[in-house]
Amino acid sequence: MIEIKNVSKAYRTDTIETLALQKMNLSVPSGEFLSIMGPSGCGKSTLLNIMGLIDEPSEGTVTLAGQQITDYNGTRIARFRNEQLGFIFQSFHLINDLTVVDNVELPLLYRKVGSKERRRLATEALAHVGLSNRSTHFPNQLSGGQKQRVAIARAIVGRPNIILADEPTGNLDSRMGDEIMDILLKLNEDLGTTIVMVTHDERMAKKTHRLVRLSDGERVS
Ligand SMILES: Nc1ncnc2c1ncn2[C@@H]1O[C@H](COP(=O)(O)OP(=O)(O)OP(=O)(O)O)[C@@H](O)[C@H]1O
Question: What are the recorded GO MF terms, alphabetically (predicted)?
Answer without folding.
Answer: ATP binding; ATP hydrolysis activity; transmembrane transporter activity
